[in-house]
Amino acid sequence: MTHTASLDSVVRLADYKPYPFSIPSISLDFRIEERLVQLTSSLQVEPLADSQPLILRGVDLELLSIQLDGKVLDGADFVLDGSLLRIPAPPLQPFTLTTVCRIDPHANTSLEGLYASGGMLTTQCEAEGFRRIAFHPDRPDVLSRYRVRIEADRQRFPVLLSNGNALSQGPLSGDPSRHEAIWDDPYLKPSYLFALVAGDLRELRDHFVTRSGREVALRLHVEPGDEPYTSHAMDSLKRSMAWDEQVYGLEYDLDEFNTVAVRHFNMGAMENKSLNIFNSKLVLADAETATDGELERIESVVAHEYFHNWSGNRITCRDWFQLSLKEGLTVFRDQCFTADLHSAGLKRIEDASMLRNTQFREDAGPTAHPVKPDAYQAIDNFYTTTIYEKGAELIRMLRTLLGEERFMAGMRLYFQRHDGEAATTDDFVAAILEGASADRDELGFDPEQFKRWYHQAGTPTVQIHRAWNASTGELTLRFRQSTPPTPGQPEKQPLVIPLLWALLGPNGEPGEERLLVLDQDEETLVLEGLSPSARPPALSLFRRFSAPVHWQAVQDVDELFLLFAHDDDPFARWDAGQQLWRTLLLARASGTRDSDLEQRMLEALRGLLAIEGESDPAVLATLLAFPGGAELEALQKEADPPALFQAACGLRECLGRVLAPLLHQRLEALAPQLSQAWPLGQGERQLTAVIWSWLAAAGDGAVWAQALAAVNGPSMTLARAALRALLPIDCSEREMALQCFYDRWQERPVILDGWFALEASTPRTDGLARVEALLAHPRFDPMAPNAVRAVLGGLAGNPLVFHAANGSGYRFMAAQIIQVDQRNAITASRMAKVFSRWRSYAPERQALVKQALDQLAAAELSTNTREVVALMQQG
Ligand code: B3K
Ligand code: ZN
After folding, report:
1. Sheet holding 202-209: strands in order across?
2. Which of 84, 94, 397, 739 gets the most CB atoms within 10 Å of its CB?
3. Is the entire prediction scored with pTM above 0.70?
4. Which architecture, in CATH terms, is 1-200?
């Protein structure tokens, strides 16, 4: 993400050197005291090269003593300079380095390293948090065996957890008020996978028998009172374990697997070896307390963290430039898991839509970076949708290019060859291609050219030009690919782009799906012998979203409606509809409704909504969903979020008004299935949500009342759908619904975060004052990133308030980011990205954002937030 050489402390891929020592084993002895924690850490160190200084890192550690092979080192033997501990002339033989340090977990608000959450102590080490626990190289290519002893008060901390197998647990001889636990992890691991949890936790216990017959104890630890909300996460874990065995042949490798739910957590979850730590919002859930979408997300994150046991832990990353090696691959694996368990077609649409609205936006802005970056200042800024989701798309493209069977042969070779290693993305691609080539068939593309995807930032555009000879039936397709310049990368080269496509018959009959591999700036494909007809056959393009690209093909409205009605590929069908919705919304946002197209859309919707129309409610709900705001903004000459918001409200109002009888008829037909337990009934609930939002926008009082009732009903999915439907409307039902929701859930922080987000995103004239009041609300916990994100993220998603013409929303956000940054740099620097599209706004708006960015830049900022702000100012 760093594009200028002038920025300080830049880490570069080109400078990578192996660490000159190995540390085969580490012993950590934690003594948890009243307020502080004392850690004695012994590293067994083996020099790998002659006379190198030993350099270790430590942050916010009070060093009490340091010994080498039992001998106390004095000031002449080592230098402690800021966060660097340097031993200039260590022995040339293996030795043991023992440090004793004091840590203050209660003063640690960064939520990295060892910190307190409620009454428990917990850790987060990825990427560079271990240095806040012990002096250590803290880089992912140093792999060690860890043995951990934890000692604490029995009453305050009855549960003591770390990685690996529990060797023993029991009272401390001589002090019955204290106890100890000893853990041993037999697998070599990098420091970022270390974890420790101590607290008064309740346990849900289950087990899983692996296919080779090993019985694994599964334990899920939560705060007292949260026990009733654990079974969904536990069931998800068992499904994940079974799937990885069936699909990848990968089995779990230890006798126990622990998961802990933590309220104060910077991201979703963490894959520490055999001790996964989760943000409690991704554990605690049932149908009454979580939406269908949240249940599916929990299932997929539980799977993601579990899958990391192989793609991330057994094979880890050599350095942080390789982050996508584990993250892209593990996202790809969790996407396939969800597709297998639910609907593959709908999952692909969800992922494509998410990529377009987050990753494409990142790729088009000042923080654009390749899947494999070559420099950074703060690695935490790189846990991005480009590394994760675009990284997953690269792997998916390899599968499309190679075919499932050859791709899986490559995956098998990868897991075999690199087990126990810290590997690179080049190792990964090489193993996939070698495994896939065992059959000696041609690859069909140039691997070196494919690898450009890892290094080139920006979203390519494919332009497709079609010529049709109506009398001979000859179809000529011309393709042109280009990738726009991105910061630091002005020139781009052509990429290998797999294009899955098909021709549909005149009445939408499905045609054969074909793969075309584009690898030139321009190329032409000629198809002869098609049936002559006045109109060319309809083109179904980038089926299954076969590449993470934009495309432009001149397709008229008739062709798009044909695809929208009949395309047999769910993604391509949905995408035809998205093109139509985009045109309608952009026209309204520019102040000129496209009445003809609106009429045709209404006609198509009448067909789909009729009882004999689209029979699958989930498919129908997906076809009716409007494109995301980010996607639409990118298509405007000057991005105008408030105008897009008004356009969407206006279009919903029109649809609700004109289609009211059909919408009510559908609602009635859906009603009997609404109470079915997830995953059943989710399509019905999803469609009900869309219909409510349209009818509510049209001022349908009966639907307002129905929505208000749903807030007190048994389904969180419907309660949240009801609130979303009412939110844009200034009516007393909205205020009552928000109040009911608050009254009902005020004791449950995970759910109340949803209320904070809804409140902050409600368009009101006094919106900003309301947001200020939320931040001062007695139930708002400024230390919980979920709560901060709910309020500030809610504000950013409230176009009329955040983008207010007087700039008050921007100034307020900047001031908040400065405050958050003082306690939690990771959360603040993420939040700062809300300004990333500012260069696409109209000049007056740009000037207002610029002031907010200057306000940020003038403040005392963390390296993380400074890096993001500087990029935004340059971009
Ligand atoms: N690997 C972690 C993310 C760590 C983020 C560190 N700032 C979760 C995951 O991707 O599975
Ligand atoms: Zn991950």
Report:
1. 202-209, 215-222, 256-262, 275-279, 269-270
2. 397
3. yes
4. Sandwich (2.60)
